[in-house]
Amino acid sequence: MTQKDPRVDAYIKNSGEFAQPILRHLRNLVHAACPKVEETIKWGFPNFEYKGLMCNMAAFKQHCAFGFWKTRLMKDAKDMMGQNAYGMGHLGKIKSLSDLPADKKIKQWVWEAMKLNDDDVKLPERKGRKPATPLVIPPLLQKALLNNKTAATR
């Protein structure tokens, strides 16, 4: 059963006039390909969930974005990501419906994303991430903060 979120309706309605048909079209394709998809708003834009995050869409001032949560694991990952391996909107800047791949191709991607979630496939850890460097507070600053009643209580 399709789960539509009224917040997504509001998001589309409040998007730029150029973006509304793009967002409606993408939303309809996702629902057509995955009848059990659920919508939500995460990070301020629409996300589609099926046994976990699956794909998302967003509108900006002059373009829209659409991407899959596990794009790096998908068959067409290189074509989809181009130079945008970790950013959202793997399909590039979508300014009109004509910038979108064929509906059939988008549905195939949705089915592939569904299969990844059905099989509980996890994204691998990103390489090259450095552990957080511990914050070093110079002793003089630490002493000054401790001697300040306002700073010491926060």
Task: Explain how this protein is built.
- This protein is of the alpha+beta class and 154 residues long.
- It is built from six helices and four strands.
- The chain has helices spanning 6-13, 19-33, 77-81, 103-118, 139-147, 149-152, and strands at residues 38-42, 45-49, 53-59, 64-68.
- It has a four-stranded antiparallel beta sheet.
- A hairpin with a 2-residue loop joins strand 1 and strand 2 (45-49).
- Helix 2 (19-33) packs across helix 4 (103-118).
- The longest helix has 16 residues, at 103-118.
- The radius of gyration is 21 Å and the shape is elongated.
- The protein starts with 5 loop residues before the first helix and ends with a helix.
- The relative contact order is 0.13.
Shape by Cα distribution: elongated
* Average pLDDT metric: 88
Biggest pleated-sheet summary: 4 strands, antiparallel
Walk across the major sheet and give the strand order.
Answer: 1-2-3-4
User: Could you tell me the strand content as a percent range?
Assistant: 5-15%
- The total count of helices amounts to 6
So what's the oligomer here?
Answer: single chain
- SSE ordering: HHEEEEHHHH
How big is the Rg?
21 Å
Structural class: alpha+beta
Helix content: 25-40%
Low-confidence stretches: none
Separation of the first and last Cα atoms: 49 Å
Report the count of strand segments: 4
